[in-house]
Write a structure and sequence with these properties.
With 422 residues, this protein is α+β, with helices and mostly antiparallel strands. It has 13 helices and 22 strands. The strands form four sheets. Strands 1, 2, 3, 4, 10, 11, 12, 13, 21 and 22 form a ten-stranded mixed beta sheet that branches. Helix 9 packs antiparallel against helix 10. The protein is globular and about 65 Å long. The structure holds flavin-adenine dinucleotide (FAD). The site of flavin-adenine dinucleotide has 37 residues, from helix 1, strand 4, strand 11 and helix 9. Flavin-adenine dinucleotide binds next to helix 1, strand 4, strand 11 and helix 9.
């Protein structure tokens, strides 16, 4: 039984409730964190309802990276091989191009794992795969086009959520509500959680460039080129390049005014080898802006409600670790809550335990991202010269103990997370 209908038609601020259901855990947000948590709980017999506000998983671009730690978890539950059946490419490490040559700042192939690479699969396909696996359990319920916009609270304890769709207002009552609803989290807002912001000094334009016959092979599957105040990032996909142009915060308007021809010109100036690919950019609509943000909630929970993933900590795209961290939060949440959810004994201490285990790795990686952003990326973006390889990067690749740090941090984070079978 996925969830049980209870009393009907109470009036609320959002309108008359059409239907009320009871479940053990209601997860708001079918992104990587929410979907993986739903699967992990469902396979242990916990009644789970997953609410996703979009009609399908083909949402706006949010990154397509699956890290070694996630593949290890999926391997633990027998799904890693099946994941690799989805058309994909692999990145073992980027090649960065500076004025005086190239450097590879990290190589994931050095990691002690059978998955020494980042798997690039379209996120929509990944989410369909995970929720498809969850749907094999009768105690899992997925509701698409369900915009959770109100909380059910009694005496300071969250007892559920309400969501709206074209049929009206629906209420889900649950032992625990998990807010996995991303960087603009409604659950964070409704729960009145504080956030501490760190604003990285950059923004990114994302777009696709076609692959063309006879163009250079990029070793490691990813390329970074340095221009005058710009960084060009190219990730190899099966039939195109996922491309990012990184520029200092506050310059978007100026770039937009110059138009798409200026973006083509910048790509040509950074690396003339991609001039032909850049000709495919003809309309500003092909570009989307990622306003880079980074923040963290000092507290991730209140009675009956837990935030995970970007809802608890918005990750900067540096290192592409946001998906990895959201899924690691999901794994720890499943480790801590599965038993109490099944026994009906979840307390605020359990929710605090999730934060205790996940907060410090988040702080460590955000500090590492801040270091890269403020020391290396900012100096490149503020310079009008195409500089040489920064000495800090050279140091990172030369000293063995330092050389292994970035791949470990990027592949697994400061602590390897494993699924506990309870
Ligand atoms: C342009 C861009 C590129 C990125 N590239 C990368 C990358 O390459 N690698 C990487 O690791 N990270 C990347 N990130 C960061 C990454 O997307 C996030 O860190 C990660 O997706 C967080 O996962 P999540 O499950 O916590 O939240 P999200 O992936 O944001 O998922 C939240 C889900 O909740 C749903 N939702 C929101 N509100 C409601 C509501 N009220 N009711 C119901 N559903 C709701 C949303 O529709 C969404 O599906 C990128 C981010 C952006 C913006």
């Amino acid at each position: 039984m996925t969830s049980t209908p209870v009393e009907a038609n109470p009036k609320t601020d959002e309108g008359e409730v059409q239907e009320t259901r009871k479940t053990d855990c209601c997860i708001v947000g079918g992104g990587p964190g929410g979907a993986v948590l739903a699967l992990l709980l469902a396979r242990k017999g916990v009644r789970v309802t997953l609410l996703e506000m979009h009609r399908d998983f083909d949402r706006e671009f949010r990154g397509d990276t699956i890290h070694p730690s996630v593949m290890e978890i999926l391997d633990q539950i027998g799904l890693a091989e099946k994941l690799h059946e989805i058309p994909h490419t692999k990145i073992s490490g980027p090649t960065l191009q500076f004025a005086n040559g190239t450097i590879s700042p990290f190589n994931l192939a050095r990691l002690n794992t059978k998955f020494g690479y980042i798997l690039l699969v379209p996120q929509a396909k990944f989410l369909e795969f995970i929720t498809g696996e969850a749907a094999k359990f009768a105690n899992f319920r997925l509701v698409m086009h369900a915009n959770a916009n109100a909380m059910v609270e009694q005496g300071g304890v969250v007892k559920g959520v309400r969501y709206g769709n074209e049929e009206g207002v629906h209420e889900i009552q649950a032992q625990v509500v998990v807010g996995a609803d991303g960087r603009f989290s409604q659950m964070r807002r409704l729960g009145r959680f504080e956030t501490v912001k760190t604003s990285p000094p950059m923004d990114v334009l994302w777009f696709r460039l076609p692959k063309l016959p006879g163009e250079p092979e990029i070793s490691g599957g990813a390329f970074g080129g340095i221009g005058r105040g710009r960084i060009l990032v190219m990730l190899e996909r099966t039939d195109y390049w996922q491309t990012g142009l990184v520029f200092p915060k506050g310059q978007y308007q100026k770039l937009h005014e110059k138009g798409v021809a200026a973006v083509r010109q910048e790509i040509r100036e950074i690396d003339a080898r991609f001039a032909k690919n850049a000709e495919a950019l003809t309309d500003w609509q092909q570009l989307s802006l990622l306003s880079v943000e980074s923040s963290r909630c000092p507290v991730w929970h209140k009675p009956g409600l837990l935030l995970i993933g970007d809802a608890a900590h918005v990750m900067s795209p540096v290192g592409g670790v946001g998906i990895n961290y959201a899924i690691q939060d999901a794994v720890v949440t499943a480790n801590v809550l599965t038993g109490p959810l099944k026994a009906g004994t979840v307390t605020d201490q359990h929710l605090a335990e999730v934060q205790r285990q996940r907060e410090w790795p988040t702080k460590v990686i955000q500090a590492f991202q801040s270091f890269l952003q403020n020391r290396l990326i900012a100096s490149v973006l503020l310079s009008q010269q195409v500089g040489n390889v920064p000495w800090q990067l050279r140091l990172l690749t030369k000293i063995p103990i330092l050389r292994d740090l970035p791949p470990r941090l990027i592949g697994f984070g400061p602590k390897r997370v494993r699924l506990k079978e309870v």
